[in-house]
Amino acid sequence: MAAGLGVKAAPFTYVAHALAVAAAVMVLVWCISFRGGLAFEADNKNLIFNYAAITIMLYESIVTRYCNKLDEYMVHPVLMLIGYIILGSEAIMIYKIFPKLNHDTTKLIHLILHAIAIVLGAVGIYCAFKFHNESGIANLYSLHSWLGIGTISLYGIQWIFGFVAFFYPGAAPHVRRGALPWHVLFGLFVYVLTLATAELGLLEKLTFLQSSGLDKYGAEAFLVNFTGLVVALFGAAVVVAAVAPAHVEEPEGYAPIPVN
Amino acid sequence: MAAGLGVKAAPFTYVAHALAVAAAVMVLVWCISFRGGLAFEADNKNLIFNYAAITIMLYESIVTRYCNKLDEYMVHPVLMLIGYIILGSEAIMIYKIFPKLNHDTTKLIHLILHAIAIVLGAVGIYCAFKFHNESGIANLYSLHSWLGIGTISLYGIQWIFGFVAFFYPGAAPHVRRGALPWHVLFGLFVYVLTLATAELGLLEKLTFLQSSGLDKYGAEAFLVNFTGLVVALFGAAVVVAAVAPAHVEEPEGYAPIPVN
Hints:
The structure is a homodimer.
Chain A: H1 10-34, H2 44-49, H3 51-68, H4 72-97, H5 103-135, H6 143-167, H7 173-211, H8 219-243
Helix pairs in contact in A: 1-3, 1-4, 1-8, 4-5, 4-7, 4-8, 5-6, 6-7, 7-8
């Protein structure tokens, strides 16, 4: 279907990368400058627009966070978005990012990036459980948690199936040919569910904060909601990049438009 | 891409219909038997498994609801799921449900179903605002509301564009040919965003109820979460039905498998 769009995948990978950077910065600013501790609460508004301050703050905050093992909960959104979703998205797009690279190389990058994404996702989920257990919060009752556990399980099954069928030992050629479109389709289904889970997580956390008194129309609420919108657009760009062809043939009878 | 799956769309439309019925029943049971008023609170557990009782209850509840104009809020999920999402899904699948019907007829059904879906969706959104305003609840601060308003706006724009380009007055043939895959792609993007909005709405409402004391692992929580899962699977079936071909050609050199 997307092959009929008449455009190639590469521009969508550029858009996806720009949106990935935006989403990563937004979730870091949220978790570190809004949620990261008292030291960063004082001048939030300036920090959002002050890149030098954000860099210093990022470094200090990561050191503080991992050394003191404080506030595991807020490691969860960072690992899930940057580790799990963005790395997984890069894995999905890799064939379109480097269309001229040797196919075996891109396949190896594809499966390694997905493996790292799953591991970081699992650590991120561990952080959520750890935070819940240490704070006396119930586990696994929300749609976010259900979809999240279901999605990472399907993601792992998809990875194992892909490894066995397409990498080692590899299925017979006609099985691979038949299985590939299902691998793409099921992979994109799991990917879209992952994005939906992220949206649910952003909304859930913000709803908890707002029911504890956070301003419904404040800077933090808007930042988190806009992060949700950026993640949705990012996911759309990744899906189009995945289904659009790496190369588009000129239709017959059309002269290419001169560049200058 | 889905054309390479080697299966035709029809079976996915059957799966989608079964899931649509399941989701519709689930949201009705939720809104009527769990949320519908004191009269239905007494024997919830029996009602879930008692179809006769549900039918009577449905009738009584709809009469009570619309005559007394009580509890507008719970009309919102019913209209959004059954009116907006399920009717819109039927509109998307119509070309695959009736592949042998005259193309102009299916196109007319497609645009009429989408129009009804948008109107019912708009009424459903009106119910949410009305409920908020009469209960002193803030409007348009959540990701659910942002995505929802954005999605129905894009849906309307898509409808107007489709009407003008493909129905009346209709664009030039080469423009239509070029625009059709974008119509499908953008339509599916809006559709998936609509599903994501529904998931956010289910989670948001349940989170509010749970923060007011509803059992996190109770029957109602499980019903709403499972409704979310069914809606996700339903959406996947609709998307596959939309992109899979109506007919699949036998690959060359393959004898068809005998039926008996």
